[in-house]
């Protein structure tokens, strides 16, 4: 990936850590109250605090690259001309944050020509940062120590699913794998568990938006996995139209794995 040469990766990792610190500061202050956005999703002061940190940091680090954030949506009339942009979810797992769980994340992705090329997923509570891209590889950072990560292959599979969104279509899909074990997580941690070899599959049929998936997809692809549209089994892509909703998808350790037989 030629574009990786200009990425200030260390500074971007530090930016995500600072956004996570802003979230934890709100949490420590007890201001967990949420309001409902137009799409019925919750937003808190922590979402806005992390958003402000990321927007200021990206403007300083890469002023030439536009930014699309969950908390500052850009209309399609503008986005349609973008070939490279940052896609940001300042607080992925807002419901987990509100409910007192720890598996919420800061997500930052670089999208080029409709594909996610580089991503950072930071978990503020544990201090873990996952970094990756399809042409870069993938790493799990703890402080200043990095460990290369890669997907694993096992059968029966370990399937990760959302703690809050295990809908009927997902249950029906899982019924095709009766021998599978089920793990429940919130936020982009689900993708990262596959990337580091702890899980194998993540089917998602409940609604998601593009900022929910792009960063973790880059990490997973860097680790050797894939995120495929459920109906076509083609890679999940970005900025293809006015809607920012994703289609149903399956994140997997192996794009051509044995699991595909259960979807036919």
TrEMBL record:
Amino acids binding substrate: 70, 91-94, 212
One example GO MF annotation: magnesium ion binding
Membrane topology value: Peripheral membrane protein
EC number in record: 3.1.3.7
Record CDD domains: CysQ
Cofactor(s) required, per the database record: Mg(2+)
InterPro entries: CysQ, CysQ/Inositol_MonoPase, Inositol_monophosphatase-like, Inositol_monophosphatase_CS
Binding positions for Mg(2+) 1 per the UniProt entry: 70, 89, 91-92, 212
Top EC group: hydrolase
BP terms from Gene Ontology: 3'-phosphoadenosine 5'-phosphosulfate metabolic process; phosphatidylinositol phosphate biosynthetic process; sulfate assimilation
UniProt xrefs under SUPFAM superfamilies: Carbohydrate phosphatase
Known catalytic reactions: adenosine 3',5'-bisphosphate + H2O = AMP + phosphate
Assigned keywords, A-Z: Cell inner membrane, Cell membrane, Hydrolase, Magnesium, Membrane, Metal-binding
GO cellular component: plasma membrane
Subcellular location: Cell inner membrane
Role this protein plays: Converts adenosine-3',5'-bisphosphate (PAP) to AMP.
HAMAP family: CysQ (MF_02095)
Similarity field: Belongs to the inositol monophosphatase superfamily. CysQ family.
Name of the protein described by the UniProt record: 3'(2'),5'-bisphosphate nucleotidase CysQ
Source taxonomy: Bacteria, Pseudomonadati, Pseudomonadota, Gammaproteobacteria, Oceanospirillales
């Amino acid at each position: 990936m030629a574009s990786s040469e200009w990425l200030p990766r260390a500074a971007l990792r530090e930016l995500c850590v600072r956004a996570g610190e802003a979230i934890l500061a709100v949490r420590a202050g007890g201001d967990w109250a949420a309001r409902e956005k137009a799409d019925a999703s919750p937003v808190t002061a922590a979402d806005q605090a992390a958003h402000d940190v990321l927007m200021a940091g990206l403007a300083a680090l890469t002023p030439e690259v536009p930014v699309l954030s969950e908390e500052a949506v850009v209309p399609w009339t503008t986005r349609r001309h973008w070939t490279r942009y940052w896609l940001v979810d300042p607080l992925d797992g807002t419901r987990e944050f509100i409910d007192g769980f720890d598996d919420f994340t800061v997500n930052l992705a670089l999208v080029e020509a409709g594909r996610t090329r580089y991503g950072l997923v930071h978990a503020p509570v544990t201090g873990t940062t996952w970094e990756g891209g399809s042409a870069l590889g993938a790493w799990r950072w703890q402080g200043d120590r990095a460990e290369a990560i890669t997907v694993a292959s096992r059968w029966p599979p370990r399937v990760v699913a959302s703690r809050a969104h295990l809908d009927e279509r997902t249950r029906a899909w899982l019924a095709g794998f009766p021998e599978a074990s089920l793990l429940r997580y919130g936020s982009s941690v689900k993708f990262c568990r596959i990337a580091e070899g702890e899980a194998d599959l993540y089917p998602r049929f409940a609604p998601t938006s593009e900022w929910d998936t792009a960063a973790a997809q880059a990490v997973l692809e860097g680790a050797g996995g894939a995120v495929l549209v459920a109906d076509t089994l083609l890679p999940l892509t970005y900025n293809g139209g006015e809607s920012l909703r994703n289609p149903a998808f399956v994140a997997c350790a192996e794009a051509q794995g044995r699991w595909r037989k259960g979807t036919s």
